[in-house]
Amino acid sequence: MTRIARLSTPDGPRYAVAVADGGSWTAVRSLFDHTPTGEDLGPEPPVFLAPVEPGQVVGCSHPTGPDGRSRVQGWQKPIGTVAGTGEPVRLNEWSTRVVAEGELALVIGRRASRLGRQDALEHVLGYTVANDVTTVEPAVDAVFFAAKAGASHTPLGPWIETEPGAPDDLEIVVEVDGEAVRRSSTSALPSTVADILVELTRWITLEPGDVVLTGSPSTDATIRAGSGVTVRIAGIGTLGNPVA
């Protein structure tokens, strides 16, 4: 059982794991305690919520420094930006250009501080699909606060996959209105998942349930109100959102 989801039920949100045949979901106590509660939440397709309620959402870019080498640049996104698959991405009325950025997201499973490369991935619970929605125009502040902080500007989902294959070689496809407009891979990122965690945890402590967006490997696409945007990551799943 490698897929962990957060589902909407008549009794409120429930964490669940996929039954081995992939046809139904069984409720569990929490994101980290997978003891079954006895509730069978039925077959797919259920209503998926954002698969985690993070305390922190950390975004990354990979700028090139004066020495010609890339580095990991992190920033924090408000947790109010988190949305689930199917929820509308709501654009600000003053935005003249907004892009979707298909990215791999990490969900932290163990407290992470000053990690080394050899054990960094041991602190990851699993992986999910992210859309790091970004306001490009008008010009925004250098620390990305206005660009990244819009409500519903961090869709995540549909679930957390704990064994997606090699996280540094996963294909990412971004579709707008059903047409594939960007195709790349996490292998195109200048930094590995382990490198990202090592650099971020030099400065901050990541707690269980926190989310790290690993950055866009040229997977950006312009979106407008009325569009539908989909991000697919091989080995994980498909995240789809209308744009309002």
TrEMBL record:
Span of the signal peptide: none
Keyword hit for Chloroplast: no
SUPFAM superfamilies with a match to the protein in the record: FAH (SSF56529)
Protein name: 2-keto-4-pentenoate hydratase/2-oxohepta-3-ene-1,7-dioic acid hydratase in catechol pathway
Domain of life per record: Bacteria
GO molecular function, one term: acetylpyruvate hydrolase activity
Database matches in InterPro entries: Fumarylacetoacetase-like_C, Fumarylacetoacetase_C_sf
